[in-house]
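Quick illustration, no need to memorize.
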Amino acid sequence: MEKTNIITMETIAKETEIDEFIGSTANTVKLLVAKESSIKIPEIRNAPFANYSRWFRKKPTVGTWPLENVNNTRHYFYKGDLVHDFGEGYTFCKEGLIAESYGNEDFMRAICNNRKVPNLANENNTYISKKPIFVISSRWGFTNYWHWLLDVIPKFMLFIESEVAEHGIPCVIHEEIRHSYQTEWIQIIGNYAKEKNIEVISTSKRYIHSRELIWTNSLALPHPSRTLKNIYNRIIDKQNYISNETETMQRILLMRRKGGVRSISNYEEIEQWGEKNRFKIMLAEDYSANEQMRIFSECQVLISIHGAGMSNIVFMKNGSKVIELSPDSGFNPAIQDLCAACEMQYSLIICKSTGRNQIMEVNTISLDDAMTL
């Protein structure tokens, strides 16, 4: 394979005719591309979201408690006579869908393909509260580790740590828990809620309605907030982990099971490279939520295939090195944005991929080059 070249973001933007290759993080990341004849610079799959930084700047349309203003990202608690849809993560007022319940109007329009989202709440499918309540929810949050870790849990923590929680307002979460990591995280965060005497209620209803329904905007979409790192730093501090040098994994090669989506075709070769370079090869799903938090809090170098497992970056210390392996069939800048928010040293390797499952061939020379950045 031909030796890789490091190409500037400006060059990529010019060659692909993209004005802003990755929006607000363009000056804080590096891009490593394997220059082979069979590999093309991928198009950004979510190109309509190129300029992330302008979102969240809208003033809310209902009563709010301003929470934080960091790096042009504002977080608000919204309160009003509202209906929330646990199934989609949307919130409705009497006039219709509130765009800020999932990013902003532009983002919502793109997600919904310009279709009007109906409020289908009725007395049979709606939990009705006569008291103020805080809703913990996120689109895809109950089916996807990335959105659970970067959206659902941080919203929970924001509420627990806020002045709003001091008024005896309960949290409401949907009872549809599908995965073991969700049960573990509910227990971890639930302990903090108990310390502050906050009641946590679960419901099987798809919708929830209250004249004083409270929710907070997303910390992960359209673009990750630095507040995420601050929240998880506080969670890690509460765990009081004791480092065991025999178990410390300072270098992690996060893999996927053979044959799965975005798995590696030359698995054995990469495994040998990892062992040679003192990497611990692991599958995230083999570890509990608490174990993942401890392991990644000690990790100084992470190499990983693009996927939800990379949300564990929020546990790593500022300045750690992250190398993302992404298929050439399409590029999603979510990991870059998360690394920028968490102040990581970030590099990207574009890998040749085949088939609908995007099976990737990883160039070890690219790995060597990325390690020297």
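The two ends are 19 Å apart (CA to CA).
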